[in-house]
Amino acid sequence: ANHRPLYGRRLLVTAGPTHEPIDPVRYIANRSSGKQGFAIAAAAAEAGAEVLLVAGPVPLPTPPGVVRIDVETAVEMAAEVEAALPADAAIMVAAVADWRAADTRAKKIKKDGSGHVPPLALAENPDILAGLARSAKRPPLLIGFAAETNDVIDHAQAKLARKGCDWIVANDVSADPMGGETNRVHIVSKDGVDSWDRLPKQAVARKLMEKIADELDKCSPA
Ligand code: C5P
């Protein structure tokens, strides 16, 4: 077997949550650990790819052979993704915050003791995956992730169409909670659904690299 099936390919991976500041000491975040995205970046490098990992704030070590760019917010992640192009494939694993604080305060919001509760207005973040799908520099293979709690396949099919990507890797986060060590994924594409057994995140990543290598070889032999 070919042990470096992604040799000569350039892969872009996003991973982790984003943090959206409210004031200098507070932020909006989510439960993404970054483990699946980092495992994917690691597996891509092992498979011989040149890998650029745009990572939200997570305390994980950079996998060997991976070039990592740390970001905090969705807006920063969008800019680094744009700057990283072109790529043969992009795998958007990050759990990007849907909303950020509409205005970030320069000073800490103080509790004044009167019982006044400050309002928190939100603004919509850019959808990085959907933006990439429409971009002139769209990677030939564009992969999104979907963490769902119900109707996993139906939601993934809808997401595939809405986002304009080629595959959605969907998983049920009520069966495999965010931050855990395993995932049971369904790869949804225009060709149908490929459902895998529950596997450690590293095994999901390695299997996904084989599938990506096969797909890239079909379109343009390396
Ligand atoms: O429907 P949802 O936005 O949760 O879809 C998740 C997929 O979209 C993931 O691949 C995620 O990385 C990507 N995404 C993004 N930018 C956003 C929101 C989600 O790239 N603002």
Compact description:
This is Coenzyme A biosynthesis bifunctional protein CoaBC. With 222 residues, this protein is α/β, with parallel strands linked by helices.
Strands ordered across the widest β-sheet: 5-4-1-6-9-10-12-13
Give the number of DSSP strands.
14
Strand share of the residues? Answer: 25-35%
Number of helices: 5
User: Low-confidence spans: pLDDT under 50, at least 5 residues?
Assistant: none
Sheet with the most strands?
Answer: 8 strands, mixed
Distance between the termini: 16 Å
Please, what is the average pLDDT? 95
Q: Can you write the helix and strand succession as a string?
A: EEEHEEHEEEHEHEEEEEH
Structural class: alpha/beta
* Gross morphology: globular
Radius of gyration: 18 Å
Helix-residue proportion: 25-40%
Q: Give the cofactors and ligands.
A: cytidine-5'-monophosphate
